[in-house]
Amino acid sequence: MTNHDTAADTVPRVLMLGAGAMGSLFGGLLAEVGVPVTLVDINATHLAAIRRDGLRLVTDGGERRVRLDACRPDDVHETPDLIVVFTKAMHTDAALDGIRRWIGAETRILSLQNGLGNGERICAHAAADRVAIGMTTCPADLCGPGHVESHGQGKIRFTRLDGGQDDALERLAALLRRAGLDCAIDPMVNTAIWEKVAFNAALNSICTVSAGPVDAIGRTPGAQALALDIVDEVLAVARAEGLAVDADRVRASVLHAIGHHVGHKPSMLQDVLAGRPTEIEAINGAVVARAGLRGIATPATRALLALVRLVEAGRSTPSA
Question: 214 and 246, same structural domain?
Answer without folding.
Answer: yes
